[in-house]
């Protein structure tokens, strides 16, 4: 490509934009338009945004010149950086000690129990802590945390100072948000006690389930802890299930008490006439009170504040303490493949998953601090979110509540100029799903692009530069530390395969470790997870300490596990106490046992890669 004078470039642009340009010259490419300028010395193609007025020749001319200047400037900076790297490499080689990373890349995280039998189980080889047997139930897990961290901050909620509606063709609610307000472990324990006694005062009994249908919020987890304490199974339903899904969950479990939020009252008004078993409806108050009219007279309506007040005054406490094999959660799936299915999860199931998590977090290279904060924004009705909240709380990590609508500065419910929850809370730990990380990556790239051509080119160079040296074992500064609050250390990702490109981008750009994991509701969230010292991408790590997995033949796909090709097949997960039961139609009036050998079939094909980290095919 040749360089041309500014005058000739302007003439070319003028001709291309004001004359009848042939289709083979003027064409649409993605979200931009490009056109060809022909000279006797060669051809030059320019690209401009389609929103740019075609009659504004001076603006096109200026933009094109700025692009060339930016490219030249970035190339010059790259040259200077190259010289600096060559001169400073010996120093950084001694400081960063990249050979330590090289050693980590050779670690065997899991191996076959029998190397001669490719169908034997894969077992984790790297352990940092032996499973502890002291805690056996969910209430014991929380009570131990209260005893250990009594006056430490436990749960936090962001104050809502105001709310307004903006009509842009679609009515959007924008909130004016304040700081986070915190409750200590002792204060939360008092609320748990009051709520548990309040439920007993309304006729809730041990081993008789109640439904919890609400958004992720403080009252959700406090109610769950109260139910665990008095041995009341929690039936979780997604708020996105819709009318049919909610009716299905209530009818199948035949519950009498539903605990919900005021935001869910409108849909429950439609549901209640179809489920005559409901006798009590307890709702968490919201910023805007919903009408309680049209609630059937047979249903007693109780607000959350009234529930706590009743608990303070109730003295006839009578319940059966939970045992490890008692049902803790009856978790309904999202219904993406049909009607929602209820998975029965015992106290022992969750505690076993917690022990597996504890082994990973006991890595000496990762230490929890008193200031560590977890941001809870995913649906608490999802087993990964619930297990993570309970586990981190048991370690003294404070939990701040958020929502997808208020997570970032650009979230739909955040007023312009206000900080999103990430920047206000400054979390150090979070769980994410691939879709959310893809959106974060897109937002960061858009922010870089808005600052002009030079900034975008420099950002692209910085990302590729950091990726190059990080893979070689050298440390480099983070690129956008404030986007996620500035203190983030670890992101745990699950629920779907994460793009290797997104994983690398988030890891290098934010300077955080992105640990991908894999599990099922039937395995109480976790079956495999990456180690803190596993820097591979596109993989989900080795089996956790309390879990094993093996590959079996998948004949429909022509996958056979053999000594010649032992790494592909259908995965079967084995745990010391796999969640073995599903709730099925009450017409059959029985429970269906998935397996008597403590295994669960994943139903998808997998590949065991070198270092025995599993990845999707």
From TrEMBL:
It catalyses: a long-chain fatty acid + ATP + CoA = a long-chain fatty acyl-CoA + AMP + diphosphate. It is an enzyme of class 6 (ligase). GO terms for molecular function: ATP binding; palmitoyl-CoA ligase activity. Its EC number is 6.2.1.3. Residues 178-573 form the AMP-dependent synthetase/ligase domain. One of its GO terms (cellular component) is lipid droplet. The keyword Membrane applies. PROSITE patterns: AMP_BINDING. The keyword Chaperone does not apply. InterPro entries: AMP-binding_CS, AMP-dep_synth/lig_dom, ANL_N_sf. One of its GO terms (biological process) is long-chain fatty-acyl-CoA metabolic process. The chain crosses the membrane at residues 72-95. Keywords: ATP-binding, Fatty acid metabolism, Ligase, Lipid metabolism, Membrane, Nucleotide-binding, Transmembrane, Transmembrane helix. Belongs to the ATP-dependent AMP-binding enzyme family. This is long-chain-fatty-acid--CoA ligase. The gene is ACSL3.
